UniProtKB/TrEMBL annotation:
This is DNA-binding transcriptional regulator, MerR family. Residues 82-109 form a coiled coil. InterPro entries: DNA-bd_dom_put_sf, MerR-type_HTH_dom, MerR_fam. The lineage of its organism: Bacteria, Bacillati, Bacillota, Clostridia, Eubacteriales. PANTHER family: MERR-FAMILY TRANSCRIPTIONAL REGULATOR (PTHR30204:SF69), REDOX-CYCLING DRUG-SENSING TRANSCRIPTIONAL ACTIVATOR SOXR (PTHR30204). The keyword Thylakoid does not apply. It comes from Desulfotruncus arcticus DSM 17038. Keywords: Coiled coil, DNA-binding, Repressor, Transcription, Transcription regulation.
Amino acid sequence: MIENRVKISDFVKLTGSTLKTVLYYHKIGLLQEPERSLGGYRLYGPAELSRMQSIKHLKSLGLGLKRIKEILGDINNHKTLREVLQSLRAELLSEKKSHEERIAKIEKLLSEDTVPLDEDSFASPSFQMIMDILGPDKIEKYARTCPELFEQQRKVYSILDDFQWGEDYQETFRALAEFFKAHPQEYQISLDYGARLASLAQLSEDDPEVEALARESAEFIKSMPQLMEILGKQAGIKTPLASLYNDMVANVISPAQVKHGQLLQKYLASETNIAGDCKTPALLKDNKR
C-alpha cells in the first residue's frame, strides 16, 4: 500500500480482473490512466475502484464496452443511462420471447413419439402471420370447416418459407389475410370453396368438379377488384424452380388440386396479369379460404 493507493497487481486481484483486461481498458479509454509513483508505477485508488465497479455492473446487464464507455463518459447524465437501460430491456424482452418460442417448438417435438425434421415439425412464419392477422375466431372456423386444407396449407407454406424461390410472398399473404379479415362475408364464402377444394384430393384429374370449381372460384375472385389487384402483383415462381417446387409439393397437393390451380390461373389470366411460370397452389388456394 502507498497511502490509499495500490499498484496494478493488487488492483487486478482486488477487482477480480486480469492484467490484460485492465491494460485494455486503459488503451480504449474506458479506464483513465491513474497517477504514477516516482518510480513510474501506476497507482490505483478509490476513483479507479469505483470506475471498475460501474463497469462490472453494466457488463452484468449485458452491455458492451462501447456502450459502457458512452454511458460512463458522462457519469452524471442519468437520462443517458435510463435510455440505454430501456433499450436494453426491450432487446432482452424480444430475446425472451424468441427463446420461449424456441422452447415451445422443442417441447412440441419432444412430445411426439418420434422427432421428425420434415416440414410438418416446424411452424411456418408465413402461416403464423396469417393466423395472427385473421385472429383465433376465423382460424378456428377455417380449421373446423376445412381441416384437410388447413393442414395442407400449413405444409405448403412451410415449403415456401424454408427455401428462397425467388419470390417474396410475405406481402401478398399479408394483404390476402387483411382482406378476408375486413370482409367476413367473403371469408365465409371462401371457406365453402375451400371445403370443395379439399374434396378434390379424392377425385381424379378428369372429374368435372375440378373444372367447375376452377371456373366458379375464378368468378368469385373476379367479382372483387381489390382481391384481383392483390393477386396481380404476384409474379409466381419462375422456371426452372417451378418444376422443382411442384416436385416438393407433390406429396402434399393431389393431381386434381394441381390441375385446379392451373385452370384457375388460366381463367384469371384473361382478366389480369396473373400469368407466370408457376403460381403456387398455396397462394391460389389462399384466395378461397
